[in-house]
Amino acid sequence: MTTVIKWLAAILITFANPIVGRTDTACKGVDLLLDTSSARTILNIIAGHGGSQAIASALKLPGNVALVRKTHEFGRNVSVGDLGRALSVLQAGETLAKDSFGLNRLKEKSEDAEALLALFERDHDKLLKGVCEYMSPYLPDDYREQMTIRVLAGGYATGFTFEGETDFYIAAHNIGDDPAGLQLILIHELFHIVQAARSPLQVAELEAIRDKNLTRGNALAHLFNGYLEGGATYVADPAEFEGEGPTVMFFKDSLNKNMKVIRRHFITFEAYLYQLFNDPDADADAIYAAGFYDDGPMYFVGYYMAKKLEEKYGGEKIRAMLDQHPSRFYLDYIAICRANDDLLCFSKRAESIIRETMG
User: Fold this and answer.
1) Domains of the chain by residue range
2) What is the rounded CA–CA span in Å between residue 242 and residue 239?
3) Do the Cβ atoms of 58 and 41 come closer than 8 Å?
4) pTM for the complete prediction?
5) What's the rounded Cα separation, in Å, for the pair 331 and 115?
6) CA–CA distance from 103 to each of 63, 87, 276 (Å)?
7) What integer best gives the mean pLDDT of the chain?
8) Strand, coil or helix: what is 9?
9) How do residues 87-100 score in pLDDT, each as one tens digit?
10) Phi, psi at 8, each rounded to 5°
């Protein structure tokens, strides 16, 4: 299986050419594209190059538009114009007093960002081939999609996607020269796109459920997030990746730490579920942040369940989950944990709530 980059263009600033290319991959029906132009352009700007014209061009790039969108999602009321003004300050050699986009940190870690870009330029074939070989067993045979990996410089998230879209984003300065860490993040985010595309439950339907029955909708969203993050964390299982780079070791250490207290996480997950289902005044956003931001303790409840389901039924179970209602993921797990006292399980009341979320 061979991955070939077909160079399409070298655009914008030419101090170092960005990669904007197409890949013919071994990812079954997934066609991968790679775009490093956003990262390359911003790195050139904060190094003092290009003037106002470079900034104006940079603000039009899809990756930088996405950086603004993601920053806004984190609760910061920002615009593309704010990013432009921040870049102007850094281009002039100054430091930002208010750093909504994580650009001060980017400047401190610019060598890591350059290392990630160099890693793509040096080993893109090997990297993407590895991603595809790892992912292929988890992709449905009939799945067809074109996805773009957009490499960013700036922001606080290491990797992210947007619901219903097929681009996914990685932050170069948060990864650096860490091939295993890069592949782990790519696989995690790629699987999120597949999950979102295949799920019978879509965001519009979830919002409609919330409008009709707020508590049921909030509980279902909690279950959905646990399935999405748990499933992607298991598919891109840190325990399966070799290497000692800072990114892969962060995820390995996080996994080890959280699995030591997984019983506590099950209890917390169920407590959140109970509150969301029974209290219309529950702060769903705060509960989501507590469970899925930072170290993401709720990720590991879903990870544990997916791992046990695959051990019981094999890898085809992970593929089958993609086409099931997210609550079915929990009910399938409950069926095996009720028959095995060695597995952590949910209470009968939690099971009843999960069944009610299916309507």
Assistant:
1) 4-196, 201-357
2) 8
3) yes
4) 0.87
5) 44
6) 15, 8, 36
7) 90
8) strand
9) 999 999 999 999 99
10) -100, -35
Give per-residue burial for 33-53: e unless 16+ CB within 10 Å, then b: bbbbbbbbbbbbbbeeebeee
The separation between CA 246 and the C-alpha centre of its own chain, rounded to angstroms, equals 18
CA distance 107 to 119: 19
Query: Which range has the worst mean pLDDT, 52-56, 127-131, 212-216, 300-304?
Result: 127-131
**Nearest residue to 127 (alpha-carbon basis) of 165, 170, 164, 156:** 170
DSSP code of residue 201: S
The owner of tokens 């019983």 is 263
Triad 118, 154, 294: Cα angle to 5°: 110
Phi, psi angle pair for 161, to nearest 5°: -135, 170
Those residues whose C-beta lies under 8 Å from the C-beta of residue 312, and which sit 6 or more positions away, are 336
The residue type found at 351 is E
pLDDT in tens, 132-178: 888 888 999 899 998 899 999 999 999 999 988 999 999 999 999 99
Q: Which two tokens stand for residue 97?
A: 């007093």
pLDDT given for residue 359 in this prediction:
75
On whether the CB atoms of residues 37 and 12 are closer than 8 A, the answer is yes
Q: For residue range 213-255, list pLDDT tens digits in order.
A: 999 999 999 999 999 999 999 999 999 999 999 999 999 999 9
DSSP 50-80: SHHHHHHHHTTSHHHHHHHHHHHHTT----H
Contacts for 115 with CB less than 8 Å, ≥ 6 apart: 176, 177
Report the C-alpha gap between 256 and 347 in whole angstroms.
25
Q: Whats the size of the chain, residue-wise?
A: 359
